[in-house]
Amino acid sequence: MNTHKALFAALLVPLAAALSVAPAAAVSPAPVAVSALAGATGSSGPKEVATSAFDSPSAVLARVAHPLRSTEPRGSLADLRPFGRMVGGARVVGLGEATHSSHEFLTVKHQVFRYLVEEKGFRAFALEVPWSTGLRLDAYLLRGEGRLKQIMDEEFQGTYQWWNNTEYRDLLQWMRTYNIEHPEDPVRFVGDDGGFAGAGLYDKVNAYAVTARPEIAPRLAELYQGLRPAVDAETYVNDYLSKPVAEREELAERTGRAVDLLKRRPGADAEAHAWAVQHATAIHQMTTLYAFDWDDPEAISDAMLYRDRLMAENVVWWQRQTGDKIALAAHNGHIALRTYIPDTYPKVQGEFLRERLGSGYLSVGLTFGQGSFNAFGQDGTVRRFTIGPAAPGSVEHTLDQVRHRDFVVDLRSAPVAARTWLATPHTVKNIGATYPGIADAPQVGLAQSYDAVIHLQRVEAARLLT
Questions:
Q1: How far apart are CA 294 and CA 3, in angstroms?
Q2: Cα–Cα distances in Å, from 309 out to 286, 306, 424?
């Protein structure tokens, strides 16, 4: 299998990892590459706008930043009341992360989600895992179906293994406990990604057809012939991507016809029909994603564009179908309001969500000054990496100077004295699943990328269960 196929066969293609193929001699952040955003604003590199300690961006932001005295999920949520005002009437809140595997990013998300559930009426947690994974976890949370450890071990494979950690286990256990205590008003789990379509999806579509429209069940079986997984997810995707492009294109065409067939033949139960169509759509999303030619570097950006769009569409579908307000967890680059690296990621999930939901979508970036994280090394093995203090001129260096150790700040209402700095591209840490990667240190205009930022001065690697 060639490099592009091997990378995508890991199921998850996180921002800044999809094309991380060039060897690197060191594990320090990659050199800064001036982005298209920098060129558009006339900036030739990182720069500070401060002229004195009194009008420096960090001093100005300190006046409007709200301290977080704890990054752990238990205990008082009083520190998050200012954050609740930032959320306002948003129906989807994107919670980013500068690395995929740092403890504090995950525990802060747990803490924020708990606050959103208890104080703002949120009822769903979405994560960049397959739709079928989300359904399996949702069944566990709602009805206790299955064993959590087995589900996590079987579903969080390949690069999805970053989610198989004690932090997400604790979040899921909290959600299950909440549902036991609130059976009439439960919290739900959504998988918004398209990297795999588990056997349960095919079973759900077939069960609906047999019950509601039995005349189309044989035709659906024909269209899905040979697609229902009978092996683990990683093996299935490896085998699928070994098929010729023409065969993968034909499979995508078949699953598209299955969606159309279901849409044309609604049953008496409109809600059951809507879910069946969505499950069939998730199957079609996987086959469409894998119909791109992963041998062709020029096709990668098209595939990444499709992936971010489908993730946004799945989140919007769930929100509108159920009415649930959703906390969306993903990499900073995916939940951002504009892309970090337009050549590879022309448009990201957060951009699509802002277009579809307007002010109903809130984007929250999570940054850190220094610390550790888990990632694949250049040899493909899982390693723990450590990064020292943020470099002068970077976003994190300035945020580290704010008087609070950890804090949340609303960029939309930042004082005038900080707006020039917030609008100017500066280097930001952007660690994907492989480190070093192709865009570990892009330049980003912070206020153009996020509505709010949670900054943590120090993080430690997450506690993997595998």
A1: 9
A2: 13, 5, 27
**CA distance linking residue 427 with residue 293, whole number of Å:** 32
Strand ranges inside 377-451, DSSP E:
382-387, 406-410, 426-427, 443-444
Measured CA distances, 341 to 18, 34, 330 (Å): 12, 10, 16
Q: Are 69 and 81 in contact (CB under 8 A)?
A: no
Task: List b or e across 181-208, with b for residues whose CB sees 16 or more CB atoms inside 10 angstroms.
Answer: eeeeebbbbbbbbbbbbbebbbebbbeb
CB neighbour list of residue 312: distance below 8 Å, 6 or more residues apart: 192, 349, 350, 352, 353, 356
pLDDT per residue as tens digits for the range 94-113: 999 999 999 999 999 999 99
Supply the pLDDT for residue 298: 87
Question: Residue 30: CB partners within 8 Å, gap ≥ 6?
Answer: 24, 436, 437, 438, 439, 440, 441
Residues in the chain: 466
Residues 6+ apart with CB under 8 A from 114: 73, 77, 174
Read off φ and ψ for residue 39, nearest 5 degrees. -60, -35
Tell me the DSSP string of 24-73: -S-SSPPPP---HHHHHHT--S-----SSTTSSHHHHHHTT-EE-S--SS
